[in-house]
Amino acid sequence: MRRLGLLALAVLVLAWPLLAPRYFVFLASLVLVNAIVAIGLNLLSGYTHQLSFGHAGFLAVGAYTAAILGGHAAVPAPLALLGAGLVTGAVGVALGIPCLRLEGLYLTMATLAFGFVVTEAILNLEGLTRGADGLPVPGARLGPWRLSTDTARYYLTAAVAAALTAAAVNLTRMRVGRALLAIRESEIAAEASGVPVAAWKTVAFALSAFYTGVAGGLFAYLVGHLSPDAFDVFLSVDFVVMIILGGLGSVPGSIVGAAVVTVLHDSLAAVQQYRPLIFGLILIACMLFMPGGIAGVLRRNPWRGGSPAQSS
Amino acid sequence: MTAATIAHVVVSGLATGSVYALMALALVIIYNATRTLNFAQGEMLMVSAFLAWTAHGAGAPLPAAIGLSLIGSAALAFLIERFIIRRSLAATHWDVLIITLGLSLVLRALAGILWTHDEFPFPALFGTRPLALGPLRVAPLSLGIIGASLALMLGLYVLFVRTRLGRAMRAVAQNQRAARLMGISVERVFTASWVLAAVVGALAGVLIAPVVFLSTKMGLIVINGFTAAVLGGFGSMPGAVAGGMLLGVIENVAPLYLPSGIRYAVPFLLLIAILVVRPAGLLGRPRLRKV
Amino acid sequence: MERWIARAVVLTLALLAALPAAAADPGVTETEIVLGCSNSFSGPLAFTGEQATRYGVDLYFKAVNDAGGIHGRRVRTVYYDDGYKPQEALANTRKLVEQDRIFAVIAPQGTPPVVATLEYLEENKVPLLFPFQGSPITRGRKYVFSGMTLYDRQSRIMIDYLVGQRKYKTFAALYQDDEYGKSFLASFEKDLARHRLRLVAAEPVKRGATDVSAQVAKLQTARPEVTFLVLTPGPGAQALKERQKIGWTDTLMISSGPLTDERYLALAGDAAEGVEGLSLWPDPLTSDLPGVRQYREHMKKYFPRNEPNRYSLSGYFAALLFTEGARRAGRNLTREGLIAALESVKGWESGILPPLTIGPDHETQKHGFWVRVEKGRFRPLTDWLSSE
Questions:
Q1: What angle do the packed helices A77-99 and B266-277 form, to 10 degrees?
Q2: Taking a C-beta distance cutoff of 8 angstroms, is the pair A60, A118 a contact?
Q3: DSSP string, C296-353
Q4: Looking at the complex, does the CB of residue C376 fall below 8 Å from at least one CB of chain B?
Q5: Inter-chain contact C206–B264, Cβ cutoff 8 Å?
Q6: Once rounded to an integer, what is the mean pLDDT over residues C156-169?
Q7: Which of residues 93-152 of A touch B (CB under 8 A)?
Q8: How far is residue C312 from each of residues A195, C1, C265, C290, measured CA to CA in Å?
Q9: B261 contacts in C (CB within 8 Å)?
Q10: Rounded Cα gap, residues B124 and B288, in angstroms
């Protein structure tokens, strides 16, 4: 049954550009990009219970890296995306290591500040980023082809998203996932039972940043124009809404959350003043009435998106 | 850079700094009682300022309008604490952070719908034409903000040291279980902290609105408040005051000597630096982790 | 049975495929013309955006629609908010073109957001009409018709007047750190160099910033006679208040064309007295020009509670000019036809601005006049100044 469902989903994803008008192909690509970010954020928040308000910053690092690699150095898309992921992952480690000593609120606030520092850095590194005017992104190149249509960019995004989703599902089933879950339940207990907490938290930070960086690269190709003020704290909050709504620690939940938030965001464009109202109400309602998010409602399994455990 | 310029810049730094200090105090009051962070504190400040402005626009004299806004802010905080925060299942810092994040979005959106996202001039309690003090020129606005903030801080000090409520709040901050055993209603202290923080925040809002203009963006001041609180050692009230003043001055003086663009990154760089180097803050003591 | 369904499906698909081909261009039907733009409904230019679109463009189109429309077609508008962020502006514009299928973009706002959409619109051959910005980048593009007097022309008018007639020698600038501020800055340098002068100081302000005290303190130390403000209303008013706070009286502050408006004046309060600036629009409240009088009448009729201002007047003018172009293009309205029709505008009297001629550079406005703030209002000091 599950296989059948996955197969149907795969067929739908592959056939989507044939079924939908051009704008919806673009929108679907955006859903996939956001799903990658949500999975990445969930690797950090859902498994180690560290909330990040700075993932828009990671997304920006990835996006600008890909755009600069593709522009100045004419690097083909897969390499540019890998570069975006690695650079962002390295930034994640650089932020993660000093933040290891911090817990809870402090870490959240450090990530918040990080997000602001990234936009300020982009504004001030005008030679590379063109500052506040924004950076046009050169079209993605794949060998001899230019991925200049929405459909081509969609398939690139879908392929990367599929690979990263599969990797995340496997990851959470392996030792990494179990170690991270143990940290989420109680850092001190995990440490006492021989889990190297600091190392795993760094890994979580690095992975989360890597995912978000790759997504940033794809995002750059999709929107075609980057400007620092679009990667503001409100975008980071959107990502938090995705995982809270979808379900902490759940990969399918991340994807559903990303899809719901992205589509809502788009369909509320004409009544934009109600957008934060609705997202805010979603956050409050989730915390009060369904702490496991959508995944928790669909599957009442205490290990996957049950109510977030007490943290230290 | 002349000495007069530097003196002026330091004084306006102290003025914004004292508002950051009030914001930090509001955060710390709730944190000490409940061990949670109210991320919506900045948005509550913004709503208070809009309430005062609306009342003033409807014909109330400014002091009366501010009084009405204080009552409104206290009522809002009471309702939020009673009907939303207390209903969350576990009320861990994680839950409350996300709920108040949601609240901040809701308040900002509602304010935008009610009052639009424009900027508005806010009537100042103090004038802006400079007074000459010897060679120095100082705006009464800056001095007024500093004076009013210091008076409010003194009031808070008296409240915490001399009154029953203040003592109960300090007892809860020190040890919730012991306070409960001593017969203190911890729930009532929670509510009182929210209301008190909202009132402090509202006054901060009314003081800063003439300087930055009234707009829905004002809520972002919560980040400066948090930075100030961390700078002084999160949880310490004297630390919050010192941290706020320090942040205000650094923010204003740094761009005189560095490229002006640095101005807007100062609070964030400072926050990261202090968290990395000395998370306990300048005046705070490192706290042991609870098992 | 199945064959019947299959036939129905094929027929529907064929109809769907044929539909866009039947209509001449997107956004024009038998009964309707759809226009739209991405604009600021939040962020630092929210007031401007709201006024220019919903109370400006829509104001004129309400009057047009009530009078029978353009060749029998009613005009409908769609707006999305970008909060003055270039990236959001591009995403919104894609949505407008691909999903809402607008005929043309009308009156979007802000230099960085508008510049971000240029390439996309040119590629998709969608006209970009009369944006509320003046970067010279928009000059001479086939699908773009500029709105306000372009910044290099504004700079030339300002510098020639200040150096030539007012004999000022030292200049400084407080500018927004993006394409808006920087294109002004580059033009100032060029025009001052013509008079063998240069800027003695220039300080950047971040887009959307609320504090400019350090920049003002630094500018004061350079002691310029004239300080240009190339900002949005919030920071512009902050600069005036900050100057008042430090008692800096021996400089003349001058607002750029887009800044010379009522919003900036209202925010600055009494700190604005004596400030001068270049105005691109006649006074919406007091001007006797027939077009401005009609604008006030329309405003009273359709939005009686909305005060007239330069932003809604600019949006109103954009809609007026579009209507002129679309009427000239005839009943068979196409994008190419509209462009040809607009290019045929020669010496046209709008009743709001000096006679308008659109050349191959696609510039619609080339004028401005000098104003000074007296008792909280802009008082004109000169007649229209030309940049030719």
A1: 60
A2: yes
A3: HHHHHHH-TTSPP-HHHHHHHHHHHHHHHHHHHH-SS--HHHHHHHHHT--SB--SSS
A4: no
A5: yes
A6: 93
A7: 98-99, 101-106, 108-110, 112-114, 116-117, 120-121, 123-124
A8: 64, 60, 16, 16
A9: 177, 204, 206
A10: 45
**ipTM of the complex as predicted:** 0.87
Using CA atoms, how far apart are residues B45 and B22, in angstroms rounded to an integer?
A: 11
* CA-based radius of gyration for chain B: 19
Cβ of B212 and C211 within 8 Å? yes
| B281 φψ region: left (φ > 0), alpha (ψ -120 to 50), beta (else) | left
CA–CA min distance C13, chain A (Å): 11
Residues of A in contact with C208 (CB under 8 A): 229
| pLDDT tier at C2, thresholds 50, 70, 90 | very low
Q: C217 and B5: CB-CB below 8 Å?
A: yes
Contact (Cβ atoms closer than 8 angstroms) between residue C144 and residue C138: yes
Question: Helices A55-72 and A77-99 meet at what angle, rounded to 10?
Answer: 140
- The amino acid at residue B253 is V
Which tokens hold the place of A149?
């249509």
Residue C265: left if φ>0, alpha if ψ -120 to 50, beta else—which one? alpha
Per DSSP, the three-state class of A306 is coil
**Across the interface, do A269 and C95 touch by the CB < 8 Å criterion?**
yes
Contacts C213 to B, Cβ<8 Å: 9, 12, 252
- The residue type at C251: T
Q: Does B258 contact chain A (CB < 8 Å)?
A: no
Tens digit of pLDDT for each residue in A218-276?
Answer: 999 998 889 888 898 889 999 999 999 998 888 899 999 999 999 998 888 778 788 89
Residues C82, C89: Cα–Cα separation, whole Å: 5
Q: Which of A21, A133, A223 sits opposite C112 (nearest CB)?
A: A133
Distance CA B59, CA B52 (A): 11
